[in-house]
Structure formats: C-alpha cells, structure tokens
Amino acid sequence: RLLIDNYSRLLQGGYSSNNYLPTAVNNETMKLLLTRHLFLLATIAGFCTLYCCITNSGADAITKEDHGRRRRLQGKDDDAEDRWFNDVPRIHSLAMQSTSSSAPSHDQQLRVLLIVTSLVEYDKGTRGTKRGYDRLQYVVLPQLVDSVSSMTSRGWHVDVYLVLGYAHLAPDRRQMIQRSFPEGVGLEVWEDAIPLHYANTFNKRPKADQSLKMADHALSRQHRFVLRDKLPFYDFFVCFEDDMRVTADHVINFLELSSGIQHLHNQALSNSDHHAHVSDPSPPRSPRHKPNDGALFGNDVIDDPVQAEHVKRLFPGFLRVEVLDRQPDHPLRRPGVLDNHGFVKEIPPSTNAFTSNGESMLKPTNCCAEDDPPRGKTTPHPKMDELILWETNIQATGVRKYADPVGWVAAMPVEDRSDVGSYWSGYPNVYGKENVKRPRRIDATIGNQAGFMATRSQIEYFHNVACPGGFFPPYDSQHWKGDSLQRHSVEFWSGGFQLFGQCFLNRILSLDPKKFERQLIYHVSNNKQRTIAAKKVIRVGDFYGQIMKVKERAEELIRQF
User: Is the dihedral of CA 274, 554, 446, 431 positive or negative?
Assistant: First the structure.
C-alpha cells in the first residue's frame, strides 16, 4: 500500500512541493524508478512468501494450546506474568509527581497515548442521532479537548491517535483538531481504517462470486494494531470510543486502585499461605454456599482470604453514564418512571447512600460537569439525580471486602470460570427462588464501558496471560476459529465483552463515594436515554444505594456468626 500510495503521489506531482524530487521528472526517470521499486516489491514479497511457508511448515510442531501460539511482544514475554502490575507504582508516582511539579523534566513526564476510534464524521441519523449533524466538531472534539487538557495540565506528555472509519480527514478539519489541543500534543490519524471481510461466511470459504465488504463493526478492533505498534513508547494507554469523556481524574483513580491491588498481591506473597487477609476477619461460617455454575466459589464470599493468583485477576472498572437532557416530554422524566427501577422492592437503596436531605452522597462534577451554554448534546450544570446508567443492574452485581488499601468493592459481572468470589446481591434467595443462578456473561448486564485504560505491563498481561487467544493480532490461533472479524461485535473489541467476558479478569469498583464518582464516564452523545427501554435505566445514585444495601446485608450475615 505504501508503494502504491507513493506512486500515486509521484504521478500526480505530489512530491514536488515537499522537495523530494525535482518538479520536472521525465518519462525515462519515471520508468527507471518504477522498475527499481517493482523489483524491490517483488523481492520483499518473495521473502515474505518464503517466511510464511517456513512458519506454516513448523506450525504442527507448536503446541496446540492457545497460549503457545500467541505472538510474543518485543521478545520480553517470558517473564510477562511476573511483571503483571509491576510498572504501576512507577507510573502512579510519575502521575502524581507531574502534578506537583510545575515543569517536570522529560524523564519525569508520564507519557500517555490516547487512542480514539470514530466511525463517522457526520451522524447518520440512526440510534437517536440527527442525520448530517457534525459529530466530529460538536461531539468528538469537545470531549477530546477536555481529556487532553486535563492531562497536560498535570504536566503529562499526551499524544492522540485517531482511528477513523471515514476515507479522508480534510486538511482544514485536521488543523481544527490540532489547533484545539494544548501546545506539544502530538496527533496521528489512521484514515479509512475499516477492515474488509467476506460477510456471513462464518469460517467457511467464500462463494466464487462473493465480494469483500466493509466490516464496520470491526473498526473498534483496529486500536489493537496501534497499541501493539506503540507499546514500547508510552507508559499509559487510554483507548475509548469517540464519545467518552475520560479525564486525568479517571486515570489517577485507576492507578490508585491498581496500586492497591498490587499491594494486596504483595501481602498475599508475604504470608505463608500465599493469601491476603483482612485485619479483622469474621469467624468461620458453616455451611457455605456451593456454586451452581462453573465458578470456583459460592455466592457468600465476603471477607474471605484471597490467594495471590486470584488477586492477579482483579482489575479497576468503570460505569458508562449519561445526563438526562431537559427537552420537553422526556419519557424518563415522567413522574415515577425512574423511581420504579429494577429490583427496587428486592433491594431498596440504602438510606446511608444519601444525605439527610435525600441527596446522593455522590457528586456529578467529576464525570459530567458542563457549563452553560453546553457543548454538543451535553446537559449543563447536571444534578446527581439526572445521572443515569443502563449497562448493568444490581442483579448482576456483588460486593466483597478485601484487605486495605482496597477495602469494600462492588464486583461487576464476570464469567463463572473467572470469578474469584464475592457476596452476590441475590444470596440466598433475594429474587424469589431457591438456588437461582447468578447472571454471568449476559450482554445486557455485563457493563460495557466502551473502552479501557491500562499500563504497558497490564496490557502485556492481557495478551500473554489473561485473555484466551491473546489480546493482540494476528488472531490466528485456534481460539479465534479462523475468523476474528465475523464472530465479534463492536462491544467485544471496545473493551467490554472480550476483556471482561472472556479474559480472566474481575472488574471491581471502589465503594468509597469520592472514588466511586471517578469511576463514572460520561457518554457525551447522550442518546441512549431516548433509545433504550425505561426498565433498563436507573439513576446512578439509586444504583450506588442498592450496592450499599447489599454491603449492609453482607455485614449483617457476618454479625450473625
């Protein structure tokens, strides 16, 4: 593609303005250049073919286990599992050091790469959007500027990489983006990034007359190629869809909880039983709940010791939220609609999650602050009772108490085989039936967060240890069944359904209200509230109150013993 692109530019005289070639290039020179480059291309292709043949001839000798077929990263992966979160203390220190230093040196700067995936430049009119609305200028750019500015104001070095689903970003539009960023922020753009595939083949050979089509749903996979290419050059990576406002506060909170998880792991390793213990453990309980699915633990795990290997599965999570708009006749603002939220009778929100005036202990400013007039489709000066979520519910949630500094957390949905244990909201028979199965890998409640953030070592851990089939391309192991594009949706690649539905990772949310606020990420398109069923929606404050009620029930169970 590079050679073709270069020849296209050459033939159009595109190089003359950049002084790569003289303005006038005669036909003989062009033929000579063409011949030499085509010879080079043929030579490269020959070596590539030979290499592939040698590689494939030895494929049978490689273990059939999925882990053995993964492409290693930078030749350093033999100790990837040992590194795990090991760069977190250094990166957390860099983040905080940059905050306190007015002019940190280059070595002291936290290097952050912000990767944003954007399918369209102008809205198509689907999913509650208005056709022709300038999405880039009014939705994507404002939140992107917020993200970048919040990080550079702390002294961090930030670069932005845009992965675009449209064919071309006009020079004036690119300049608009670059001018909006603080000085020193780098910008790279991958245009026309949608991959091609044979639709509806499902691991079968395409028909003779079948043509390639754009795999729009797989644009969200392309950030993996960027990540693998850029991994050695940055400390921290933030990868989200184009309408998620992710700020430095989110990063700091993530690093603090990651540091707490690593501290928990060190505690476990220092104990003779390789378990981390809370300082005031509850007495042994009997009988204990036995799992009724593929989990290792029952649904009554509260403050139990956790072994070191299971601590490695813990990972900080986020909740995607919106702010109710204030247009007339909003269906969710009708009296009683949000008051009658899911499982309100089974698990009423705890009064301890609210002030004496009935206001939530949470504040909306960390995730969703917006001045008046608002930018794009955001809501100005939001109130806490206007914040909603829809990606999960209390039925899919549990709680657990870990040793300090992690403490009490909410356990987000996780596949049964990966679960390290928690006290489920439905234990023992809250939802009306005996031995009800806990919601696991269910799309409606898994809590898709539209992206993820991680340190370099955490990402290496994804690829080498946590994720069956690996996290990075080329996705050619048996796990992918010959077709990684056909089988998986946007939500799979964007950080939800693979990382937290297939990989051995357990997302946790701190229940400290000041930290819980920083685990909320604003979906600035603000369109889900008008396109999803009201029964799936709950106020963020009420959801937090339900979690606190489950925590109180867990504490009461301990007191009984």
Answer: positive
Q: pLDDT tens digit string along 41-67?
A: 666 555 555 444 434 433 333 334 444
pLDDT per residue over 69-108, tens digit each? Answer: 555 565 444 454 557 888 999 999 999 986 655 556 667 7
Give pLDDT, residue 449.
94
Give the Å distances, CA to CA, from 356 to 16, 308, 351, 361: 72, 41, 9, 10
Sign of the CA dihedral running 425, 431, 432, 436: negative
pLDDT at residue 128, as a whole number: 75
Distance in angstroms (rounded) separating the CA atoms of residues 437 and 458: 31
Residue 524 burial (C-beta neighbours within 10 Å; 0-12, 13-18, 19+): buried
The answer to whether the CB of 470 falls within 8 A of the CB of 224 is: no
| Contact residues for 419 (Cβ-Cβ < 8 A; gap 6+) | 295, 296, 297, 506
Structure confidence at residue 16 (pLDDT): 36
Considering Cα of 521, then 526, then 528, then 534, what sign does the dihedral take?
positive
Q: How far is Cα 14 from Cα 20, in angstroms, rounded to an integer? A: 9
* Cβ neighbours for 127, distance < 8 A, ≥ 6 positions apart: 527, 531
Distance CA 145, CA 160 (A): 10
Reduced 3-state DSSP string for 410-466: EECCCCHHHCCCCEECCCCCCCCCCCCCCCCCCCCCCCCCCEEEEEHHHHHHHHHHH
Collect all residues with Cβ–Cβ distance below 8 Å to 94 and sequence separation of at least 6.
108, 109, 110, 235
Instruction: Note the helical H segments in 297-400.
Output: 308-311, 365-368
Is it the case that residue 549 has pLDDT exceeding 70?
yes
Going by DSSP bridges, is the β-strand pair 398-401/314-316 parallel, antiparallel, or unpaired?
unpaired
Is-contact 218 498, C-beta < 8 A? Answer: no
Nearest to 324 by CA among 369, 368, 379, 371: 379
- Residues 289-320 pLDDT 10s: 999 999 999 999 999 999 999 999 999 999 99
168: phi then psi, degrees, rounded to nearest 5? -150, 135
CA distance 366 to 360: 14
Total-model pTM:
0.85
